[in-house]
Amino acid sequence: MATGAAHLAPAAVASEAHRGLGEVPIEVLLGRPVIEIDQRFTEYVAGASVLVTGAGGSVGNELCARLARLGASALTLVDHSEAALEDLVKVLRDDADFAAAVPILADIRNRPRTIEVFERCRPDIVFHTAAYKHVPLLEANPVEAVANNVLGTKSVVDAARRARARRLVMLSTDKAVEPASILGQTKAVAERIVAAAGCSEYTSIRLANVVDSAGSMLPVFRKQIARGGPLTITHPDMTRYLMTVGEAAGLAIAAGALADSRAIFWLDVRPPVRVLDLARTLSDASPYEVDIEFVGLRAGERLHERLFHTEEEVLPTACDRLFRSPAPPVDRARLEASIGLLARHVERASAPDARDALAAVLGAAPVPRHRRPTTAATRRYFEKRAHAFDRLHDKSSVATRVLRSGPARGREFAVSMVARHPAADILDLGCGPGRVAEAIMDAGARAYTGIDLSPRMLTLARARLERFGSVELLEGDFLEMDVRRTFDVVLALGLFDYLGEPARAASWIRARCSSMLVASFARWEWLKGPIRHLHYELLHRCPIADHTEAEVEALLRGAGFSSVDFPLRGRRGFWAVAR
Length: 579
Fold this sequence. Notes:
Blueprint (H helix, E strand, L loop, with lengths): L9 H10 L6 H5 L18 E5 L4 H12 L4 E6 L2 H14 L5 E5 L5 H11 L3 E4 L6 H6 L1 H21 L4 E7 L8 H14 L6 E6 L1 E2 L6 H10 L4 E3 L5 E2 L1 E2 L1 H13 L5 E5 L5 E2 H11 L6 E3 L20 E2 L5 E5 L5 H16 L3 H11 L13 H18 L5 H8 L2 H11 L6 E5 L5 H8 L4 E6 L2 H11 L5 E5 L11 E7 L8 H11 E10 L6 H11 L9 H10 L5 E7 L2 E6 L1
Parallel strand pairs: 1-2, 1-4, 2-3, 4-5, 5-6, 6-11, 7-10, 8-13, 16-17, 16-19, 17-18, 19-20
Antiparallel strand pairs: 9-12, 11-15, 14-15, 20-22, 21-22
Helix pairs in contact: 1-3, 3-10, 5-7, 7-8, 7-12, 8-13, 12-13, 14-18, 16-17
């Protein structure tokens, strides 16, 4: 149940949070004083039986240590990590002199086992901290994210209701606000599960980035400094709301005192901290000369987070610096049906379907069965297109010559943009039959690398480009390729129209683009109703994605490009240039 095997002992976590990192006080890193929760909001814990899921994790450790000090009559420690549980129990019994700690090795994804644990222990209060929390890892493993963060939460909430637990606090994240990642989406659904439980004192809290938890920023930076650097940062403008493990545990306990199923609680840890500034502070305090390296946004990451939705009504509480926002309205019948659908996708290990179902739960437009582009569907579609090009090769009609030559306006624009970078090294994603490549090489590009899913498209491209020496053509899904060099110009002409993970693709491109991205996007509104549905989604099983200029700008800026322009627009599409 813990997010990882590594964890910190409660006393160590608490002292680390208040002592600071090396010579840098924690207040300097946070950009504000550490927030202490008023003891009035902890009194309800005394004499209560408390169950903590994910007890072996960093926040779970600190929470258990505080609950023991506050006089809980019993602590049920639930985790799936054997080593983490054993270490925590030793700390509580030997160091904190708390004998009423009961370790239970269990996985919240196992619903019958979870219900059995709750019915045997009959807790008064439940703190649900168990979750997977690492954004890029969950982007690559959406089925496990849904199984743990959604279905696991449903098991815990249902088991708590059956055992008549009076209060439940579920630890969510600021990434659940307008979620752009699998982590954020699963936690947003978990918030809805808690709100729909029908128990007035079951609530959720949103944590900011817990900087001193296992796998978070400070431990990672410590290790990098110890190795002599570099400190790796995704983007120079990235900011995060930061809090300590102690603040996270204090927020959870205070929210339990104010628990209300109609609200989601969060601690005012503003202002956000620029990650680059934090890294520079640590670097300056280090006895070593430590460089800072920018590595590009990873899958699912965004530059800035939010503590609450912009349209939400934010209300203060009786506890200083603790605020509440309204819990999202929930249609219980629809939510139950959606969770059942998610469970079926998890059982079948269907990642694309799990992603679609998550979006549907959160109120996105219904996603048709074949709507999300897949690598296999896209490859099949472009293989058919390549064979169509091949069949037309020897035809002499005006129509077929136009089809073979492609859209001249777009090709000329791509060439004009590349011409601004003499002797450029070009990467072309979805290079097709090589028409653009031929024009670019004729215009003076130094080297060209093209990647395409379709073997037949690449065969046509090789035939067209054989007169050029510095051309490399690769077959496969570029997102799965280990391309370790950078290129002056990256072309993505029509690429995003067929991608199921545009944010991941944009981040991949940004990490390998040293100067300029040139991308084109279709306006699919011109291809109306039955024609579009029949040709793409039914006949070829290759759905297409719609993008607006605002969405494209947000996508590319979120990937780390500092400027995005739209120099060419037409009825059927538009072009973007990002730097």
